[in-house]
Design brief:
By secondary structure, the protein is mainly β. Helices cover about 5% and strands about 35% of the residues. It contains 4 helices and 40 strands. It holds the Pfam family PQQ.
Length: about 575
């Protein structure tokens, strides 16, 4: 739409808010991707911009007219490969690109929904994804569309034909590695993380040449492991045995399974890291760096510039992978209003963190869920949680399991993978959260390659009669919840905010819903036929504003949710791309 499609729109430019961009041969560049949030005629990055604020400047669709929103088409992914559809679509040059379960990638005509091509990765029988066969999206650069696969490969396809350009192995799937996140394009590099934290793997962030797939640098996330740069060892991550006992750092976890964000202003990548291995924290004394953390990484070298650990010595599977979203705001500092470069993260542990993104210093931390039984707050001076020792699962006694404790949030998190949105108009973050708890206990465990490495058991439980899911509008300057919308089932999809005073998200019950961004009033909903666990987007096409979302129930909840999952076992599976607009 920005390139060849801009010619079609040239005659409409005076009547629309879309600024025509020059036609560039070969497709989007790294500079175009950095500017994605300012070009509403396409969506060429996960999160609708490298900072992933998921905010659109479009307002033709707004809180006054959204009640008239109707479907344009629904494009089925087809076949028997349904399961969870957690993808965010990309839109470019009249084509919608979307990944599907079982490591598939589709190209659909953006006006008609007609399928242009489909690519199916040839997955081996022994893949070991912990949390469904999902994929969260692709990246686009030049004539390539790039995505990761469940057998831990990174594949670049020709975006016109779906033919393979290059295919690179990221890690050994037989050791438990996989990949599900949308890649990030920065400076002509493909930046990716890895999955497999439940299998004793080592988390890593890596950068590859976007044209060839050749490795440029790697950064392991666990102390004691050596990074690389241009084919040579670079620096060790942290210090060997500084926060790990013995050889436990060799199976330390810390997967970077949600991918990262990029801030051009500070030239920093922000990647969250997952749980330490094993879950049984009694086996690994210490903070276990750099698990359950946010890492700020230099994209040019792969060096860690700062880190902030949200859950030191994690014993509840509170992965710290959730997205860290850069934003600017004025904060009270010693009674004075100070403009600051900030970043926000709604962590799985139930706290909403605001950090100075230039140095990682904690600015504020506030609870965004009903309860946090594992800690009673965050110490703003030290940045560390105020742990409640009695609510840490007990050590096993020989072959017997340890003392069971009740913990809230559950290990599925106050917020899991589903991305929040930030509105530059309201100054609010819109957080898809869940209120639930769990009984959790520790068990004996030993590492075995390719086997689950938990050392814990659990039973997830609801903690409220009227809801589990809650879409909450958080004010990052005060830490207060401005409004909330409660949903009976867990919320497991991403959020979109727009200049039209709208917030969109989906529900497992099958609805895509629109809310008033200021008040939280529900303004519109549409039943898609299956649970919505994808991330909605919006763009302008032919002078009209469109909205799209994937529908297809799945993900971690039906697999790990126990009694909670049984409550919603009747939700139909599916696999469809839905596209909406206002009627003319």
């Amino acid at each position: 739409m920005k390139r060849r499609f801009s010619i079609v729109l040239a005659g409409l430019a005076a009547a629309t808010s879309l600024t025509a961009a020059p036609v560039l041969a070969g497709g989007p560049t790294s500079a175009d991707i950095v500017n994605d949030a300012a070009t509403p005629g396409d969506v060429i990055s996960y999160g609708m911009g490298p900072q992933q604020q998921r905010f659109s400047t479009l307002d033709k669709l707004n809180s006054s007219n959204v009640k008239g929103l109707v479907p344009v088409f629904a494009a089925s992914l087809g076949g028997e490969k349904q399961r969870g559809q957690e993808s965010q679509p990309l839109v470019y040059d009249g084509t919608i690109y979307v990944t599907g379960s079982y490591s598939r990638l589709f190209a659909f005509d953006a006006r008609t929904g007609e399928k242009k091509w489909e690519y199916n990765a040839r997955l081996p029988d022994g893949i070991m994804p912990c949390c469904d066969v999902v994929n969260r999206g692709a990246a686009i650069h030049g004539d390539k569309i790039i995505f990761a696969t469940l057998d831990a490969h990174l594949i670049a396809l020709d975006r016109h034909t779906g033919k393979v350009i290059w295919n690179k192995k990221l890690a050994d799937y037989q050791a438990g590695y996989s990949a599900t996140a949308a890649p990030l394009i920065v400076k002509d590099m493909v930046i990716t993380g890895n999955s497999g934290g439940e299998f004793g793997i080592i988390g890593e962030v890596s950068a590859r040449n976007v044209d060839t797939g050749e490795l440029i640098w790697t950064r392991p996330t666990i102390e004691g492991h050596m990074g690389s740069l241009n084919g040579k060892p670079s620096t060790m991550t942290g210090k060997l045995n500084a926060s790990w006992t013995g050889d436990l750092w060799k199976t330390g976890g810390g997967a970077t399974w949600l991918g990262g964000t990029y801030d051009p202003e500070t030239n920093l990548l922000f990647f969250g890291t997952g749980n330490p291995g094993p879950w049984n924290s009694n086996l690994r004394p210490g903070d276990n760096l750099y698990t359950a953390s946010t890492l700020a990484i230099d994209p040019d070298t792969g060096e860690i510039k700062w880190h902030y650990q949200t859950t030191p010595h994690d014993g509840w599977d509170f992965d710290g992978v959730n997205e860290f979203i850069p934003f600017d705001a004025t904060m009270k500092v010693k009674g004075k209003d100070v403009p600051m470069k900030l970043g926000a993260k709604a962590d799985r542990n139930g706290y909403f963190y605001v950090l100075d993104r230039t140095n990682g210093k904690l600015v504020s931390a506030n609870k965004f869920v009903m309860q946090t039984t594992w800690a009673d707050g965050i110490n703003l001076k030290t940045g560390r949680p105020n742990f409640i020792p009695a609510n840490r699962p007990g050590a096993p006694n020989g072959a017997e399991k340890g003392t069971t404790v009740f913990a809230s949030p559950s290990f599925l998190g106050g917020k899991n993978w589903m991305p929040m949105a930030y509105s530059k108009d309201t100054g609010l973050f819109y957080v898809p959260s869940n209120d639930w708890g769990m009984d959790i206990w520790n068990e004996p465990i030993a590492y075995k390659k390719g086997a689950a490495y938990l050392g814990a058991g659990f039973t997830i439980k609801p903690i409220a009669e009227d809801h589990i899911g809650a879409l909450r509008a958080m004010d990052p300057t005060t830490g207060k919840i401005v409004w909330e919308y409660k949903n009976k089932a867990p919320l497991w999809g991403g959020v979109l905010a727009t200049r039209g005073n709208l917030v969109f998200t989906g529900t497992p019950e099958g609805y895509l819903k629109a809310f008033d961004a200021k008040t939280g009033a529900e303004l519109w909903k549409f039943q898609t036929g299956s649970g919505v666990v994808g991330s909605p987007i919006t763009w302008e096409q032919d002078g009209e504003q469109y909205v799209a979302v994937m529908s297809g129930w799945g993900g971690a909840v039906p697999l790990w949710g126990g009694e909670v999952a049984k409550t919603f076992k009747e939700i139909s599976q599916g696999g469809s791309l839905w596209v909406f607009k206002l009627p003319k």
